[in-house]
Amino acid sequence: MNDSLDRRTFLAAAALGSAGVVAGVNVLGPGAPRTASAATTPPAPAAAPNFGLTKFLDPLRIPPVIQAHSRRNSGELTITMTTARTRLHSQLPETTLWTYEGRFPGPTVEVRSGKRLRVAWANELRGTVPLVAVRAPYAVPTPANRPGYRAADGSLPAGVELVEGVAELPPWNVVHLHGALTNAGNDGWAHNGISPGHTQLTEYPNRQAATALWYHDHAMAVTRFNVHSGLAGLYLLRDDEEDRLRLPSGDHEVPLILADRNFDTDPATGALTGRLLFKFQYLPGSGTTAPVTGPFTLVNGGIWPHLDVDARWYRFRVLNTANGRFFRLDLVDEAGVVHNDAVRIAGTDAGLLPGPAAVPAGGLTLTPGERADLLIDFSRFPGQRLRLVNTGASIEPDIMEFRVESRRRPDPFRPPARLSASYVRLAEGVNVPAEHDEVFVATTPPGVAGRAHPEMWELKEITDPAELPARFPEEGVIQLTDPVMGHVRTFRRVASLFDDTTTIFIDRGRWVVWNLIQLGGAPHPMHIHMARFQLLTRRKFPDLTAFDTAAAGTSRPLPTPTEGPAIEGHEEGWKDTFTVWAGEWIRVAGRFEEATGEFMYHCHILDHEDEAMMRPFVVHPPEIARFHRHPKSPPGHPMPHHNGH
Fold this sequence. Notes:
The chain is built from 5 helices and 40 strands. The chain is mostly beta strands and 645 residues long. An 8-stranded mixed sheet has the order 28-29-27-26-31-38-33-36, with no helix packed on it. The longest helix is centred in the N-terminal third of the chain and has 11 residues, at 7-17. The model is unreliable at 1-8, 14-48 and 636-643 (pLDDT under 50).
């Protein structure tokens, strides 16, 4: 292993190379080794290995639907977490999972906008977490893409280690409804986990537009293990605006819940055992780790399934529940020809788009936590077989197969030119008022001041010249050139760990622009709870060398950022998860109007979230906020204030 390997590019390699969102690019950088040493490099696997599992053998599973407001349920549900055993492929032994209602993924909950739902999440899990967690030394190709972790004699190869303490983890869980506008007591606060025999009581007002949300575990420090073990499910909101569109429904509206997994093997035979393997790579010299990924792609809990479809339009509710894998989706035929012109994007994380959007030229990238509402016209392909693929993936790129019937069917549906009549594109000074709050958050590459993992810094601007450092770099201080203001601005880190002092306080009803700045390393899909947002601008710093990783600060101001990649049509939609790529500065705006309390925001790569890339923020009624004293409040008598940064 070359110890000089740049740690910031290592994580970029892990996130990009194994996730397959960039094809044909040396994501390790020009100075990085292209191969590992002969002593540590395993034999290269065959191209697109299936490890003995037949692709497209099993039909796509459709999770059962719970109609939350049916006569039977009347707006109140009990959903039970149970330990279950199931086959994730018909050629695999059974896998032990933690599930909602014995299903992986959990049942799809369907609700009406404006109708309250109360859910009792009952914890009846048993045993310890049903996976084995292993870390393996960095190598090319990545060991994360291979099943198993032991040598033929059952011993651990050099550098391979069991992750201490994981085997003893008991069930301790809390449910978060991702994308829900609900008060903080219902949001799934990470510290509020419950043990078996206890129940989490929640209430969801559902006062939001039709969209696809999803529920999943959010327990502090162990979310990655709990979700990987199976704790995730879809939650669909319906409203009148959606109904009027007469989009494909019933059997022609299909959830596609994407994930990736790995499995242990029998050391002697190499046969897959079905036991979940949580395996990731690390740099022995520094301890820097890559997010976990796996070589098997699952859709609705089945590996490489197929779906028989009519020759007509379908609607697919696509969700990426993977711990760390990015999916770049393309629709291809048996010859590998891309047919994305048969696909239209109807909606994103938080609702319908104003009109159908084309798939970007390079495919549709979905990062962990993101959703897409897709319309696909199969009438163009009677009798053919199409595949949904993860283009550029270093693993088997195929995700699933569509088998189109031979005969054509009458289908009156055509994508309407206008989808959401209620959609309004946000613009500063127009419908985002000039009087709003600004929050600044920076993400760092790994290795900052010798610390192994990437970090997330909350920033406060230094406006008093007397408070500026005497010299640069200084740890936790960054300078950047603001392209709008036209001058250098200086910021100091005021919080990083989850349990550091809360620094972001927002008045209910207040508009907030979040400035998300990426200082290098892996991309981060950033999820902000309790509101919906739109992407306003995306800029990119042409050079990040001003950020001194060892010193954890800038040695000189970052240069003026240029315009970044153009905002695609589908990116203009309402969202709750935004990916920040290396060197980008994005600004997203939202209004915190539906709920109050203490919420969270974080990177949705679950390994990063658990490794401290998560922080709290507070929303108060403004009348209450004026009396609340905190480190940012002015001295003396309480007085009205505006928060954020």
